[in-house]
Design brief:
mainly alpha; 227 residues; single chain
Length: 227
């Protein structure tokens, strides 16, 4: 075998997996786990069904891979908690990243939401282990910020739930947002304004920055911190 053959095969495998996962996100988001079939996913990916099963032996294995992918993307966004001990900087970056993820990966978010709405029949074990442990680590950071007097003494769990609900709304309910925006997706400028607004409201609510004066418009984090 020539040296170039293995890298070429690896590239083909990676491309096939990307195509399968993209198609699976769409089909699982549209039909749920029960309604989706590997045949439909293979057709959407443009590959034979046998090829799909070469990479993912069962529908459940493929589904778990889709769910784990969006969850790992969300986990990476929360690295800001470890990169900065300033709640203003950490939470601003986290919220911004979560909203960007909602815009870039709406189907993955919808798969997750649908699974949770049905009481996590496939990934309950994941919630009880990985999600619980990760959440506890983020709660510990927020508790430290509170103890250091950097933010108001709010319940860390409820703060996280609010951030998740707000940021993922832009994925799970993007059709509603588009409809209320004249039938068009938010423009880049509108989306940036939405991010600034969400960040400003959250930071002001936890006492990390002064609340904006009435009528001053959407909060600007830099301006608020300098106030």
């Amino acid at each position: 075998m020539r040296p170039t053959e293995k890298p070429a095969k690896s590239a083909i495998r990676a491309e096939n997996e990307r195509a399968i996962l993209k198609a699976a996100e769409e089909v699982f988001a549209e039909r749920g786990f029960r309604g989706a079939t590997t045949g439909v996913i293979a057709d959407r990916a443009g590959i034979p069904k046998a090829n799909l099963h070469y990479y993912f032996p069962t529908k459940e294995a493929l589904y778990r891979r889709v769910v784990e992918h969006i969850f790992n993307v969300w986990l990476d966004a929360a690295n800001t908690f470890d990169e900065s001990d300033d709640p203003v900087a950490a939470l601003s970056a986290y919220i911004s990243a979560k909203m960007d993820i909602s815009r870039a990966h709406p189907m993955g978010s919808k798969v997750w939401a649908n699974e949770i709405l049905h009481k996590a029949p496939v990934i309950q074990d994941y919630l009880e282990t990985t999600l619980r442990e990760w959440t506890a680590s983020r709660v510990a950071v927020i508790d430290r910020w509170i103890a250091d007097g950097k933010m108001a003494p709010v319940n860390p769990h409820y703060l996280l739930y609010m951030i998740w609900a707000t940021t993922q709304h832009y994925a799970d309910f993007n059709h509603q947002i588009d409809t209320l925006n004249g039938g068009e997706p938010l423009s880049d400028a509108q989306f940036e304004e939405a991010k600034r607004t969400v960040i400003g409201i959250v930071l002001a609510g936890i006492g990390a920055v002064p609340a904006p004066a009435p009528g001053s418009g959407p909060a600007d984090v830099t301006r608020l911190r300098e106030a």
